[in-house]
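Mods, move this if it's the wrong board.
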Amino acid sequence: MLQQTQVKTVLPYFRKFRLIFPTLDSLSRSSEKKVLKMWEGLGYYRRARNLLATSKILAKNYRSQLPKEYKEIIKLPGIGDYTANALQAFIFNKPTLAIDGNVKRVFSRLLNKNENKINFKSLIEINKKNLFRLNRNSDLVEAFMEFGALVCKPKEPDCQNCKLNNICIYFKSKNKFVKTLKVKPETKSYNIFCYINKEKNQIALTKKNNLGFLKNFYLPPMKEVKDGSLLRNWKHHSNFKNLISNKKLDINLYYKYTKKNPMQTEWFSLKNNYEFIPSFTKKIFKEVLKIN
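Not the wrong board. Structure tokens:
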């Protein structure tokens, strides 16, 4: 839940989620529809689907326990290198660090090197004896995260009160080379095609867009475009921007009226607040309702 979402936003969702699903087994027996309903409002619904899929795998293949080995954890849906290492440390106290932006920044300042010039995995491996000598590996992972967020901050780090300033090259140096890398959102243009049954106030949605970040979601037919030329035989309704994860979407919304169900689509009422469709689709619903 915390991926791409602030703690204060997550807390009420987390508490409610735990009341409904107090154990991994209870989650694994749930339907996708119910999980998505609990998740509604958090966005990035792939996270919820991955969570449900992982719970089913753990219940079926691992007796509802998380496997201890990294190579097994990394295979689970939605689990990447950062999460796999964090789970190993927090649950099994294994000597590893979860490398996120905060941890990268701490090491980058200690060495006074830009992040792109540091091999973090190699750095940790070389310094294993010093980093993990107290056998408090779960505490160490948490400490690095909190230290980067509260002391070694992206802007205005609290260097004067930092307990590591005696070994920090960034603090001691007049030439501060550290520059936090910022990932610029990728901009892409899409045409969205809204087939509308005006008589029944319905719109045709499909899961067959195969656009990666919106894969397996109910959406109107979409197509990525390389130029901004308008289409014939379609009525252009509007252009709007949308930000999904690290992508900026430049969208042209087209529509046409039809009673014939387009191929690989299903009809949905424009006035029904479906819990299993993403907020992105609901935004399109609102735009389409302006047409009628």
